[in-house]
């Protein structure tokens, strides 16, 4: 197939969506498909516009200045695709570039699919613009209505979106590289830098330090648990607008900054308990990475945790609810995870086992098959329309 793959985040940006997009493009090209990657050009990158890649113009996202949104006119995309018509257009992100790509696909009669990866409407509440939530939701609903298939990562999210009027939903989970994220990468020297001896327990948070990620709750939970567990350590991996404030408020916490690849894998494996306090994630790749690393995970019963964790079997779940109730529920889950966090304990072994069953190869092959179905259905519909 010839696939136009449209995304507004891609390496060198570092985030779950960007890294998943890169992995997906690699898989599709490796499977023999012709993939035209369309994404914003980053500062310092050469301009490019050919059959393999178009780096279009873009600008920083106001709430995420280190990320960019893409900008291309529908007419420009139509002209590009008339030169070599794709069998399918796949849109990863719902920004201006994604909107223009879906409009161009519709205008040219090209079948299209899209991912729903981020609850942007829910972010409004965390940035003081809650009144805009229905406006953003309405925009997302209109955008996804232009696609013949909309991929969502969990059944839970599919039910929520269906209740908001979204249609043509296809559940497709995420995978994890269980050879990279593995308990075997545990590093005694790294733990020594954290001032954590062999018997000490280390709690870990990995993610963007921003309001919608609820990182405050992870650190508050650690503080509460430290009162009755001397020697407990906390490590934070990631960066974001809240880092300076959080570092000042929690001087005893080790902030490791952004980590990638084997270094990130060592940070996971060298900890014992993983705290994932987010309530806005559609999935949360870090949850699978922590499970694959054999950590005792404490998370809310939503997203990847709801899909992959069995409470008190391979992780510990907290029920979402009002802020005060949620904080206590998360504390309870974290306490149970800590109590079950011995390195060779059954819960941590079960965590690793659960993650190894979510391999990227199977996920990407199912994605590829569904793209074929969308493209085939589109070609049949176009033929029938021509014969009518």
UniProtKB/TrEMBL annotation:
InterPro entries, A to Z: Glyco_trans_4-like_N (IPR028098), Glycosyltransferase_grp1 (IPR050194)
Domain (Glycosyltransferase subfamily 4-like N-terminal): residue spans on this chain: 14-179
Protein name (database record): Glycosyltransferase family 1 protein
Species assigned in the record: Pelomonas cellulosilytica
């Amino acid at each position: 197939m010839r696939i136009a793959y449209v995304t507004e985040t891609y390496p060198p940006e570092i985030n779950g969506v960007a890294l998943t997009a890169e992995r997906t493009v690699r898989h599709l090209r490796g499977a023999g498909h012709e993939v035209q990657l369309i994404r914003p050009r980053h500062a310092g990158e050469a301009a490019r516009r050919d059959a393999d890649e178009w780096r279009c113009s873009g600008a920083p996202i106001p709430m995420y200045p280190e990320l960019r949104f893409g900008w291309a006119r529908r007419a420009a995309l139509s002209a590009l695709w008339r030169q070599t018509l794709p069998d399918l257009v796949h849109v990863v992100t719902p920004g201006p570039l994604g909107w223009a790509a879906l409009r161009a696909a519709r205008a040219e009669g090209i079948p299209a699919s899209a991912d729903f990866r981020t609850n942007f409407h829910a972010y409004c509440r965390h940035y003081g613009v809650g009144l805009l939530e229905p406006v953003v939701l309405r925009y997302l609903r209109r955008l996804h209505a232009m696609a013949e298939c909309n991929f969502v990562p969990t059944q839970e999210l599919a039910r929520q979106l269906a209740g908001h009027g979204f249609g043509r939903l296809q559940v497709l989970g995420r995978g994890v590289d269980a050879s990279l994220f593995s308990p075997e990468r545990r590093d005694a020297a790294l733990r020594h830098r954290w001032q954590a001896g062999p018997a000490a327990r280390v709690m870990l948070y990995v993610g963007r330090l921003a309001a919608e990620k609820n990182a405050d709750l992870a650190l508050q939970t650690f503080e509460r648990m430290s009162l009755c567990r001397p020697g407990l350590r906390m490590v934070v991996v990631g960066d974001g607008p809240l880092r300076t404030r959080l570092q000042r408020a929690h001087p005893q916490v080790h902030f490791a900054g952004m980590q990638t690849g084997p270094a990130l894998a060592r940070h996971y494996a060298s900890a014992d308990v993983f705290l994932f306090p987010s309530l806005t994630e559609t999935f949360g790749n870090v949850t699978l990475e922590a499970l694959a690393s054999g950590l005792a995970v404490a998370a809310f019963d939503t997203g990847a945790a709801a899909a992959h964790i069995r409470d008190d079997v391979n992780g510990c779940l907290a029920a979402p609810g009002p802020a005060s109730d949620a904080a206590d529920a998360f504390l309870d889950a974290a306490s149970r995870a800590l109590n079950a966090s011995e390195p060779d304990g059954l819960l941590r072994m079960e965590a690793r086992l659960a993650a190894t069953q979510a391999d990227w190869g199977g996920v990407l092959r199912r994605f590829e098959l569904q793209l074929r179905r969308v493209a085939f259905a589109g070609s049949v519909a176009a033929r029938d329309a021509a014969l009518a």
